[in-house]
Design a protein that fits this description.
- By secondary structure, the protein is an alpha/beta fold.
- The protein has three domains: 242 residues, Aminohydrolase, N-terminal nucleophile (Ntn) domain (Glutamine Phosphoribosylpyrophosphate, subunit 1, domain 1), CATH 3.60.20; 188 residues, Rossmann fold (3-Layer(aba) Sandwich); 143 residues, Glucose-6-phosphate isomerase like protein, domain 1 (Rossmann fold), CATH 3.40.50.10490.
- Helix content is 35%, strand content 23%.
- It contains 18 helices and 24 strands.
- It has an eight-stranded antiparallel sheet, covered by helices on one side. Strands 5-6-7-8-12-13 form a six-stranded antiparallel sheet. Strands 16-15-17-18-19 form a five-stranded parallel sheet, sandwiched between helices.
- β22, α17 and β23 form a beta-alpha-beta unit.
- α9 runs parallel beside α13 and α13 runs antiparallel to α14.
- The longest helix has 23 residues.
- The mean pLDDT is 94.
- The chain binds 5-amino-5-deoxy-1-O-phosphono-D-mannitol.
- 5-amino-5-deoxy-1-O-phosphono-D-mannitol binds next to α9 and α16.
- 5-amino-5-deoxy-1-O-phosphono-D-mannitol (M6R) binds next to α9 and α16.
Length: 619
């Protein structure tokens, strides 16, 4: 939710900032802007700022026609609008009253109305509807009164409420870029006589893989030769240094039309990487980042999974697996609802927070609430050093690599893997499954990358089906048991990419109301459970029959060994035969391909769907 870039060094700040924004554009694309510090006409230094509504390309077009001043100090922003419409005026950077200080911001300053009133009482004229402009005026008021930008940032941040990352430059001080963060992401990239800031490391991965993770309520000052971190009160603070474990190639499309399509095809590798190194020489599962002791894990009486969107659906699969393997009750809660319903938590409850980005504000606030209630929190996360794992007691990192397409794909599959591993680990520690059973399931998991590849090898068939549905106005998805979350995920993918009305239902629930939606020709994607393992298969066939009787056109996803499905399917997508609980890992893949291709056929921007942003850092 908004991408922020900062740079100071010997290179062209304009080029570094624009390139960084290109890599962060998935975080928001309502508008983009840049500010550079340069010598100024009178030699005292000044800020040159440009901004444009719409995608980064609009800004690039605008600045290609003019000579921006040469500068090694700059900041940039790509916006997902919160306060104020996505127009030129509300685009970032925002400037102080005299244009000396420029600021970019991610988050929401909750007390901005009160601060704005204070500034207006002092005859400040604010030009936008944003909360950000208030910060620009406050910072500039401090520097005009004699403070350096670092001190100004510390003073201003002490007055701000809410969540924010701020990055600022002072036109009269080309030797520093200053930033601050509270509940909103920001990382520092460390170079040779140059330093970088980014909402995430993609902003500077082309130049350095050395990074600093900042803590809450910290101010960071970048010069060419160093980085200084303090608290909002000015006391020196430590930041943790780490090395980014992926490189630029991971942030390129690699010949695909969309990042999303590339990420779908990376799933066999992502799943394999997420399983790597989990099996110890002693023949037992090991989760290295699990910082909870076996005794603590044995004391758990209840698990609550909290997450949003696709991650929530991964949590639903976790419920089926953990309850089955470990016999611990599992609740799955939407993070945005969690703390407002006064949940019953105690130190026997393990809260599992699932988040690809590790920055989702709803999930972050939910885990903070859980910790105040003395519950232990375990994060399942794909982003090293992000806030959610940092504030959790334990973490299982997924190893999907950077996910840039706004629609989550490999993030989801690797979350499923982490949930399976967690379930098996708990079963091992608590003795609810025999060692040989665990060994067998781990072996089955290790076969999943090959099964996923089989599904991908048949992508053309799914694409053809998707193109047949460009005119569809509504699509339903039906699933049962572990197929139910997959149905919900399939519907979410189609909504967010193709902008088609799509709903996922538990197939057994259909007859209790939603079947009224079924009319002649309605496409219904049906996730058929494995045949012959339990009654689910028969029940699903009955559900399919019911919608067919009312005119639905069924596209069935069923195992290749399924001998009964053909008469129930107007179209058939075959899935490899895998264990029931692992079926989501293969069943969701055709749904991702379907949504991606349908959206492409409709001419949509698959990587940057309308109204969305990759990581939602406001509540
Ligand atoms: O980064 P997170 O996993 O916490 O994000 C949660 C949701 O915002 C995310 O899964 C969202 O639903 C995706 N756009 C789905 O494709």
């Amino acid at each position: 939710m908004c991408g922020i870039v900062g740079y100071i060094g010997e290179r062209s700040a304009r080029d570094v900032v624009i390139e960084g924004l290109r890599r962060l554009e998935y975080r928001g694309y309502d508008s983009a802007g840049i500010a550079l510090v340069h010598a100024g006409d009178d030699g005292r230094g000044a800020v040159a700022a440009r901004k444009r509504a719409g995608k980064l390309a609009n800004l690039e077009k605008a600045i290609s026609a003019e000579e921006l001043p040469v500068s090694g100090t700059g900041i940039g922003h790509t916006r997902w609008a919160t306060h104020g419409a996505p127009n030129d005026r509300n685009a970032h950077p925002h400037l102080g009253a005299t244009g000396r200080v420029a600021v970019v911001h991610n988050g929401i300053i909750e007390n901005f109305a009160e601060l704005r009133a204070e500034l207006e009482d002092e005859d400040h004229v604010l030009l936008s509807e944003t909360d950000t402009e208030v910060a620009a005026h406050l910072l500039e008021r401090e520097v005009v009164a004699g403070a350096d930008l670092t001190t100004a940032m510390q003073r201003v941040c002490r007055r701000l409420e809410g969540a924010f990352t701020l990055v600022a430059v002072d036109g009269q001080d080309a030797d520093r870029v200053v930033a601050a963060r509270r509940n909103s992401p920001l990382v520092v990239g460390l170079g040779e006589r140059e330093n970088f800031l980014g909402s995430d490391v993609a902003a500077f991965i082309e130049f350095t893989r050395d990074a600093l993770e900042l803590g809450q309520d910290q101010v960071v000052t970048l010069t060419r030769d160093g980085v200084e971190v303090t608290g909002f009160d000015g006391t020196p603070a430590q930041a943790t240094r780490y090395s980014v474990d992926w490189d630029l190639s991971a942030a390129e499309k690699d010949g695909h039309d969309w990042f999303m399509r590339k990420e779908i095809f990376e799933q066999p590798r992502a799943v394999a990487d997420s399983l790597l190194g989990r099996w110890g020489a002693d023949g037992r599962l090991q989760l290295d980042e699990m910082r909870l002791s076996d005794d603590e894990l044995r004391e758990i009486r209840k698990i609550i999974v909290i997450a949003c969107g696709t991650s929530f659906y991964a949590g639903m699969v976790a419920k089926y697996t953990i309850e089955h393997w470990c016999r611990i009750p599992v609740e799955v809660q939407l993070a945005s609802e969690f703390r407002y319903r006064d949940p019953i938590l105690d130190n026997d409850t393990l809260v599992v927070a699932i988040s690809q980005s590790g920055e989702t504000a709803d999930t972050l606030q939910a885990i903070r609430h859980a910790r105040t209630q003395r519950s232990k929190v375990l994060a399942i996360c794909n982003t090293n050093g992000s806030t959610i794992p940092r504030e959790s007691d334990a973490v299982i990192y997924t190893h999907a690599g950077p996910e840039i397409g706004v629609a989550s794909t490999k993030g989801f599959l690797t979350q499923l893997v982490a949930c399976y591993l967690l379930g098996l680990y708990l079963a091992q520690v608590r003795g609810t499954r025999y060692g040989d059973e665990i060994t067998q399931i781990v072996g089955q998991l290790e076969e999943m990358p090959a099964h996923i590849q089989t599904v991908l090898d048949r992508a053309e068939d799914v694409y053809a089906m998707a193109r047949d549905h460009v005119a569809a106005e509504s699509v339903l998805f039906l699933g049962r048991h572990a197929g139910y979350p997959v149905a919900l995920e399939g519907a979410l993918k189609l909504k967010e990419l193709a902008y088609i009305h799509a709903e996922g239902f538990a197939a057994g629930e259909l007859k209790h109301g939603p079947i009224a939606l079924v009319e002649d020709g309605l496409p219904v994607l049906c996730l058929v459970p494995p045949q012959g393992r339990d009654q689910l298969h028969d029940k699903m066939l009955s559900g399919i029959q019911e919608v067919r009787a009312r005119g639905a056109r069924t596209i069935c996803l069923a195992e290749e060994t399924d001998t009964r499905i053909t008469p129930y399917a107007d179209a058939l997508i075959r899935l490899p035969r895998v264990p029931t609980l692992l079926q989501p890992l293969v069943a969701v893949v055709p749904l991702q391909l379907f949504a991606c291709e349908l959206a492409t056929a409709k001419g949509h921007d698959v990587d940057q769907p309308r109204n969305l942003a990759k990581s939602v850092t406001v509540e």
